[in-house]
Amino acid sequence: MIIRNVRILGGEPVDIRVADGMIAEIGPGLEGPETVDGGGAIALPGLVDLHTHLREPGREDAETVQTGTQSAARGGYTAVHAMANTSPVADTAGVVEQVWRLGREFAHCDVHPVGAVTVGLEGKQLAELGAMADSAARVRVFSDDGKCVDDAVLMRRALEYVKAFDGVVAQHAQEPRLTAGAQMNEGVISGRLGLTGWPAVAEEAIIARDCLLAAHVGSRLHICHVSTAGSVEIIRWAKSKGWNVTCEVTPHHLLLTDDLVEDSPVGAYNPIYKVNPPLRTRADVEALRAALADGTIDIVATDHAPHPVEDKETEWSAAAMGMVGLETALSVVQEAMVETGLLDWAGVAQRMSVVPARIGRLGGQGQPLEVGAPANITLYDPSARTEVDPSAFASKSRNTPYEGMTLPGRVVATFLRGRATVLEGKLV
Ligand SMILES: [Zn+2]
Asked: Which residue out of 110, 298, 303, 381 is catalytically annotated?
């Protein structure tokens, strides 16, 4: 098959010949019996998400492996890491293999289960990390995401344990006592609205501690969804010491701010903006963008968190935290990072494909688009303008903060090892 007229990382137009799931030839004027017209779209290596909630098993009313991977494919992703806070929790070889098998069965994208750090995400006892690493799912990323591993001794043990198989502990940095009952970013607006604040220090204190622990035991630490300017400063310092620390930012933390809780196109106190960690201030957003541009923040991860309508369309304090994100991630990154001149397409490819695959130790993903690489390819038209219509999402859930907004860009096609999962913006 020939994918005709695409611009790799935004470069000159070329054709790509795909054979046996690999890129066989790149050049102008390639001929073949079967062709896909790229229409001058940008070709990126298939996107890789380090932080997706697929909700299966247990909350199939919110998302399933099938719908979540369809959503991923529509967003240009060829691999996702499925977070462990399912029901049952993915804390044994049995559960991670179940999720991995579901991923193989539906195959809209690769599914790599994340293993829980502690049994039942309860923060009391280490889960069977070695058994999950040795299972068919080959787990390399471990996280209690949704909850923080707040016990320093357990965190230290987990960091020591994963060294044996080159794993990484991905921390949801939230000091629990500082955030008891927290509803939104602690600041001027939470004070005015009378909502319990989620202070930046509750994130920053855990990040500082865990950077020190990772350095102490010589292990690999990843920080989920960094959201404050102070977190960025701590991670910049840890990296300057040569410590093995990586981190992610979500698309929504690159674009949205906490004043939307008070005043937005969909009114005040609209739980569509309720998310954990919370939306922060404009100064935080600016710091996160700068840090993603200069490499202090390594990657963009969606924290795609589907919730059914009844869990979101309720009063603020009772509403679930989280936003769907797979189908809008690339557009939001274009808006926040590319349109602002902070990143070019090569930079986007690094942060949304190459580096997340490296952190997750995925050999067959995040490879540069070169002859001999797996044909995991995302075609993206940055000149398109799309009004976000949640009813068109492949995700089972609709909890997007971008409904009705016009965002730049559109995923034209996604190829997983040479097989189209999306063509002309539609699932194949
Ligand atoms: Zn989290």
From this structure: 303
